[in-house]
Each structure stands twice: as structure tokens, then as C-alpha cells.
Design brief:
CATH superfamily: NADH Oxidase
Shape: globular
Mean pLDDT: 97
Radius of gyration: 18 Å
Largest sheet: 4 strands, antiparallel
Low-confidence stretches: none
Oligomer: single chain
CATH class: Alpha Beta
Number of helices: 9
CATH topology: NADH Oxidase
Number of strands: 4
Length: 202
């Protein structure tokens, strides 16, 4: 993919408000998941989990907690990005990956001590806020990745996290941060409205 193709993906992607209900092929979903997995993250920790929802009944239950937005029940897949506060899990999965990649024991111990000090210095609220920022980096990969693979998406902050936690029976260590619905659009994009470059860069 060259720069022009990538720019076209950015320009053509939009927040889809209604999908046509078709299911995305599993092979394309797996490609998207890999794109999301490879997103950057502070300290390479990826302190979040993503619950994938395809069940129609569950989507219907979640719709009122999403202010009855149609994306929830018309999408193929609903991705619920959840910030994690489980420090042992956050560190453990990364140090295991380091071990599998051939890192030395000393390197792993040093990394563990460094990031553990960073994470345990935070309050629960600070840890959630930080983890949410990392989830948003992965969300961008989801949005652009979906368009690259030929389907559409919508990032969604308009939902009740507490209700989502209750309906999905999430553990206390997982906090819903942001949603991403994906599928095939049945609406049309509106012209992009963005601020001028002069308003953003200085």
C-alpha cells in the first residue's frame, strides 16, 4: 500500500450510523484482530481486553445502555474495549511474551521491576485513565484496519459503562472504555468537517 492508498482509506473511513446486518467473514475478522493486536502501547503493555460480541440477543440487551443507537444491533461485531486494572495480568502476559521471544532472565526481571513500579504508583482512577489511552491507540488500528479490509466501523463513547459491566458480567478489574462497531454500512457518509491545519498545528 502506498501513501495515496493510505490517504484514501483515511478519507473514506467515517463513523457509520447504521449497518446492513451482514456478517463479516471470519477470515477478515481474524485479519482485523491481528491489526489490533499489533497496535503500539506504552511500555508495550497493552493494558486492556476486548470483548467481542456477535450474539443478537446480547446486542439487544446492550442497546438501551448505548442510548438505543442503531449501530449496536445492526453491526456484524461489537468490540468492547475494556481497560484493565489487574497489574499482575498486565505485566505477566508481556513478560511471558518476552520469554517466548528469547529475552534473558535479567532483562525480564529488570523490565518487570520498572513497569511494576510505574503501575503500582498510580491510583485505581489513574490506572484506568492510562489504560484507556492505550485502548484508544488500538481503536485507531481497528477503525483504519476495518476500512482496509473492505468494511465499515464506528467508534462509540456514547454508552453507560456501569450498565455494560453489569450486563456483560465483567470482573471488577475490567472497565469498559470505548466501543467499536464493525460491519457493512447501509448509510452514506457525510462530507468530512475538520478544522484547518492552522488551527491544529503551531
Amino acid at each position: 500500500m502506498d501513501a495515496k492508498e493510505f490517504q484514501n482509506i483515511i478519507l473514506s473511513r467515517y463513523a457509520t450510523k447504521k449497518f446492513d446486518g451482514r456478517t463479516i467473514p471470519s477470515e477478515d475478522i481474524e485479519k482485523l484482530f491481528e491489526m489490533i493486536r499489533l497496535a503500539p502501547s506504552s511500555y508495550n503493555l497493552h493494558p486492556f481486553k476486548i470483548q467481542v460480541i456477535t450474539d443478537k440477543t446480547m446486542k439487544e440487551q446492550l442497546k438501551p445502555a448505548t442510548y438505543n443507537q442503531e449501530q449496536i444491533t445492526t453491526c456484524s461485531h461489537l468490540l468492547v474495549f475494556c481497560a484493565s486494572t489487574d497489574v499482575d495480568w498486565i505485566i505477566g502476559k508481556t513478560t511471558n511474551a518476552m520469554k517466548n521471544a528469547g529475552a534473558t532472565e535479567d532483562a525480564i526481571k529488570g523490565y518487570d521491576a520498572m513497569v511494576r513500579g510505574f503501575l503500582t504508583s498510580k491510583t485505581r482512577e489513574e490506572l484506568i485513565a492510562w489504560a484507556k489511552l492505550q485502548a484508544y491507540l488500538a481503536l485507531e488500528n481497528a477503525l483504519l484496519g476495518a476500512k482496509t479490509l473492505g468494511f465499515d466501523s464506528c467508534p462509540m463513547e456514547g454508552f453507560n459503562p456501569a450498565e455494560y459491566s453489569k450486563i456483560l458480567n465483567l470482573s471488577e478489574s475490567l472497565v469498559p472504555a470505548v466501543l467499536c462497531t464493525i460491519g457493512y454500512a447501509s448509510d452514506k457518509p457525510r462530507p468530512k468537517v475538520r478544522v484547518a491545519k492552522e488551527e491544529m498545528f503551531f
